[in-house]
Amino acid sequence: MKIIILDTNFLVYSAKYKIDIERECERLLDEGFELIVSLPVITELKVLQKEAELKDREAAALALELVKRFKIVKTGAKRADDACLELALFPSSESLGYTARGREHGAGRAEVEKVLATMDKALRKRFKKGKKGRFLVIKQKKYLALI
To answer: pTM of this prediction?
Structure first.
């Protein structure tokens, strides 16, 4: 089971380039996954929807519609990047509704792995310092890649 933590810029770029995150994750992953978004990411998308350039405002609005289908979680962080790192590095899987061996309903005994979905190089660097993790990124403005 993979928990995919979505960052603001990843959501905006996915919307801008019309990339279907769920379908791409199904293509990439041979196991169950859940897409999660923190409340600070949603707040950042709302700010972008009001204050960014026209194309980014439209992408932020579309991203806000998309996140309604994903699991939304609270964190102790106020900034979106910090919230993504908190979810990726610190909270136990149990706090997100998973047992140590996988999701209570569905994934069986699969291990839970957290994947950070971001295009932000600084955020990826901070994540690597805390743990050896994997990233979900957008390649060639067309598809997702797990690195």
So the answer is: 0.85
Return the axis-axis angle of helices 8-16 and 39-51, rounded to nearest 10°.
50
Summarize pLDDT for 71-98 with one digit per residue, the tens. 999 999 999 999 999 998 875 544 565 5
The CATH number for 64's domain is 3.40.50.1010
Span 39-78, pLDDT tens digits: 999 999 999 999 999 999 999 999 999 999 999 999 999 9
Number of domains in the chain: 1
Domain that holds residue 120: 2-146
